[in-house]
Amino acid sequence: MSNMNNQRASTLIEVLVAISVIVVVLTAISAMMSMSIKLADNNEKKQLALQKAEEAMEFFRKERSINSWHGFSNPLEDEARYCISSLPESVASLSAKLGACAETDVLEAARYKFKREAVINFTGENNLSVQINLLWNDGNQAQNLSLEQSFENY
Known about the structure:
By secondary structure, the protein is an alpha+beta fold.
């Protein structure tokens, strides 16, 4: 009889150990899946931010290619910041967007909200630099993506 009680006790211990191992493995898998989802979401935001920054830079490239140097550079102010929540029709109409983006000036892409700004710096009479900044919040942390290109009078 005592031999049978020892077998039952050892079987119960084996079952408890097996359940503990399964719980540890499932906890590790769920933590890994949670982190994977968070990274995928973060990568999606960065990809959208890059796409929207390139879209704004392409606007400046297009304007430079269709306008003369003076038609392109004269409407722009040195060391100015322009809020580009939506793309303007031309560089001449960009002056209406002078100033940093307000809280309500957001660019929505997919289900995310971004602030897109262009910073103009004249580096000479025949040169200027355009920096596109995309800003967004990732939880409690502010994120920023920047693209910069120089333009010249050719």
